[in-house]
Design goal:
15% strand, two-stranded antiparallel ribbon, ten-stranded mixed beta sheet, alpha+beta
């Protein structure tokens, strides 16, 4: 109920009488998609029950001559929790500090060996403008270890990691800690601009007369707060609203979206019960109990999910709280090293971090299609095909977003008309796709998800005997990211 309330609150300004009327009257480009894809609806029913992937044969390595190999030694995350639960009284740097402390404990890396620390975050706490630095100091790192914070919406942790990869590959540093954090339980709420201006002017006023003159201009509407919203500045549209339009444009039904969401929760529960989510570390919440596992994993039934009302476009939308990622608190961190440094210190790395790309496209009609654009680019850059990939780890913002990306990736028409490519890249086989759950079930702390994706990919490769994993995610602003993770030889 809380998730529904939050989704509805952030979507309250977007009311429509007909999604089809809006799509066809206002979006000429997506209307073409609707006409094209409505005749080929995607059904994943049979694929959901596909057999587990078999172990793959060893392939070539993606090492490049004269370029340092960069490895991820290990990574951790504190449990991802629904916002408003156990972490609600903390601050973002508390969560980030817990992730850093957990990484130090997991890897036993000496603090003074770490050359640099980078964290991603999105909705920033104003008191800790550089949360990476505050968390590092709190975790006991030397005050001589520099740290900075990056923001790139849902791919902020991805940016933190690839920045670290660049620093190591270029020879600037040998050891970097990258991570991300988000605390949706306590987001900054501002006074209105008029109120802020009056308060600043009052602070500068030197006489009683000047103060009274300013106060006389006060109006009650000055007190209206400005709430942060998961909305595009350029379009003033919430991400959920965009996901609803995207699902309509690609002819993805409500049952298909619910079915995919149920798959995510079911696989996450299975992975959790079998102890496969080994990157999760316990976190003793000050004044409360120790949190040991993600609390958003809730397998339901298609019948129960069908009862929920649309969260964004009412009454005809198909995106609901059940098939959307929920507001999440959490933090993650990974230890990245030059391979020679890791081996010299006696570590056995988990994986190589190889090629990566960032993409961007129209933030109105293609906001959530980052993976569809990034996947063929990263495969081409690495010299791989879809058949070479043993594990796919894609960020699940919404069920409709994932299924829309699937349709785009499996369409020659879309490749030719929107991507400037001659042929489609192809559909990821579901038996290799997010088999330990995804953001829909595990949660999505905006700034921290990237590290979870990479560690899931690395751990799956080790568990399943694969060699290559493809990590991909969409992000606000119409941006996206993809990276190849290569298993470290056993």
């Amino acid at each position: 109920m809380m998730a529904v309330f939050m989704l509805e609150r952030w979507a309250r300004d977007f009311r429509m009488t007909s999604i089809l009327t809006y799509t066809f009257k206002n979006l000429p480009s997506t209307s073409k998609w609707a006409l094209r894809f409505s005749v080929r609806p995607l059904s994943c029913s049979s694929q959901l029950r596909a057999a587990p992937a078999a172990q793959t044969k060893s392939k070539k390595t993606l090492a490049k001559p004269h370029v340092r190999n960069v490895v991820v030694v290990d990574g951790v995350r504190i449990p991802f929790l629904l916002s408003g639960t156990s972490y609600k009284d903390l601050m973002p740097h508390d969560l980030a500090r817990a992730a850093l402390s957990g990484l130090l404990h997991r890897t036993s890396v000496p603090k003074d060996v770490v050359d640099y620390i980078i964290f991603g975050t999105v909705i920033q706490e104003v008191k800790t403008s550089n949360v990476a630095r505050e968390a590092a100091l709190g975790a006991g790192f030397s005050d001589k270890t520099p740290a900075h914070t990056v923001t790139m919406a849902c791919i902020s942790a991805n940016q933190a990691m690839t920045t670290g990869v660049g620093l190591i590959a270029s020879g600037q540093y040998d050891v970097v800690v990258a991570g991300g954090v988000e605390l949706m339980s306590d987001v900054p709420i501002r006074h209105s601009r008029k109120m802020r201006k009056m308060m600043l002017d009052l602070n500068k006023a030197k006489t009683l007369g000047q103060r009274l003159s300013l106060i006389s201009k006060f109006r009650l509407n000055f007190l209206s707060p400005e709430l942060p919203a998961v909305a595009e500045f350029s379009t003033n549209e919430t991400m959920g609203h965009s996901a609803d339009r995207l699902a309509a444009a690609f002819a993805i039904s409500r049952p298909e979206q619910d079915e995919y969401a149920l798959r995510s929760h079911s696989l996450a529960k299975k992975a959790q019960d079998e102890g496969l989510l080994s990157d999760v570390i316990p976190f003793k919440v000050p004044g409360k109990d120790t949190v040991t596992k993600d609390n958003g994993i809730r397998p339901s039934s298609l019948e129960q999910m069908a009862k929920l009302k649309p969260a964004f476009i009412k009454p005809y939308g198909t995106v609901t709280a059940a098939n959307s990622s929920f507001l999440t608190d959490g933090a993650s961190a990974v230890l990245i090293m030059a391979e020679e440094k890791a081996l010299a210190m006696g570590y056995k790395p988990k994986a190589y971090l190889r090629d990566f790309v960032y993409v961007s496209q129209d933030p109105k009609d293609q906001l959530l299609l980052g993976p569809a654009y990034a996947t063929p680019k990263i495969l081409e850059k690495a010299g791989l095909t879809m058949n070479d990939v043993d594990a796919f780890e894609f960020h699940e913002a919404f069920s409709g977003q994932i299924l829309a990306n699937f349709k785009a990736m499996d369409s020659d028409w879309f490749a030719q008309n929107y991507m400037g490519r001659k042929v489609k890249v192809g559909l990821p086989p579901l038996e290799k796709f997010n088999t330990w759950g995804g953001s829909l079930s595990l949660g999505h702390p905006f700034g921290a998800t990237g590290c979870r994706l990479v560690m899931a990919a690395a751990n799956r490769l080790r568990k399943e005997g694969g060699q290559y994993a493809l990590v991909a995610a969409c992000a606000a602003g119409g941006q996206g990211h993809a990276m190849i993770v290569e298993a470290y030889p056993k």
